[in-house]
Amino acid sequence: MYNVRKVTEDLYWVGVNDKRIDLFENIFPIPRGVSYNSYLLMDEKTVLFDTVDWSYARELIDNIQSVLKGRELDYVVVNHMEPDHGASLEAILELFPNVKIVSTEKSFMIMRQFGFDIEGKEIEVKEGDSMSFGKHNIAFVEAPMIHWPEVMVSFDTTNGVLFSADAFGTFGSLDGKLFNDEVNFDRDWIDDARRYYTNIVGKYGPFVQALLAKASTLDIKMIAPLHGPVWRSDIPYFIDKYDKWSKYEPEEEAVMIAYASMYGNTEKAAQALASKLCDAGMTNVVMYDVSRTDVSQLISETFRVSHVVLASVTYNLGIYPKMHNYLMDLKALDVRNRTFALIENGSWAPQAGDLMEEFLDQEVKLMDILNERMLVTSALKEANEHEMDAIAEGILDDMQKRREAIEKFGK
Ligand code: FEO
Predict the structure, then answer these.
(1) Which CATH homologous superfamily contains domain 5-246?
(2) For atom 3 of ligand 1, which residue has the closest CA?
């Protein structure tokens, strides 16, 4: 038995769905699993585009053999050598000893580092090179840092299929539905796609912009990524998301309130602010308890929204550790161009407000911080109302300013 789907007349998806993995890269929770996509082109020559995680090598081989129907595998194109795609190459080399590997110089270096015996099998390609496999001509386009330095994407100039490596991928297993038009992507997938992009590739925005510039010169009819659905319609929708994310532009005028609360008092302040914003008509507000929300979700939402409120208790004279972890991730992923407002709480020697402001000022690029700030001493009181009103107004005023800037300067 096998599990394959036809992508075009002579291209097959021979990938796998991993629903048993809890943590992608052993760090990101993926309750909906993930697919490792691999594609097999049946031309005069047979060509496999990337492989899958080692744990699914057997399933990949079954899928490939069911399509080959006794033919040899002539080539493997390795667009990305991270083990979730490259590990099963070893099994392919054992099964098809005459197969040739088409990839970049850096990719071959990484294969050797992983201990693969590739001697005599390498066909090294670089930007601008192309190969014909019969009817299909494949052009190779370097895509460094999307998301490793060795990455390339492959473009089939015959039918417009772009094998995009990690770009345009998403968390989530396919469960049969291979194409974007077989799912409601904007309803059911975009949050996972954003969380995937922002946490995996988010740091490398300028490299993504470079790839988008190259992609704009290609007549792309279909995008075949290494994770998630294949795009055969509505491609500008997803390219627009990538453009915004990689330019660190907010997707929506929205507020995320991220709060760190030990006994519920800071949470109460966060709730009260959310109500004030909604009272004022800004209902695109989300709240996250940093202790109960994976930091990858906080990062993803930061890419989506325009405004972030940090509400933190002071802990050991510092920022609450879970909040600090989120801030460190903001820095690591080079997130920028958001407006922050601060709420701090302390029963004695409150420090969190100053420390969060210092972090945003000195450690993270191009962030605005509203002057309005609120201090809660242990619990929310009547006297806090004025400060809270000021924060809500500050956020709404800043949204207006952003709107005017977009009208004037286009961003
Ligand atoms: Fe899906 Fe960078 O590997």
Answers:
(1) Ribonuclease Z/Hydroxyacylglutathione hydrolase-like (3.60.15.10)
(2) 82
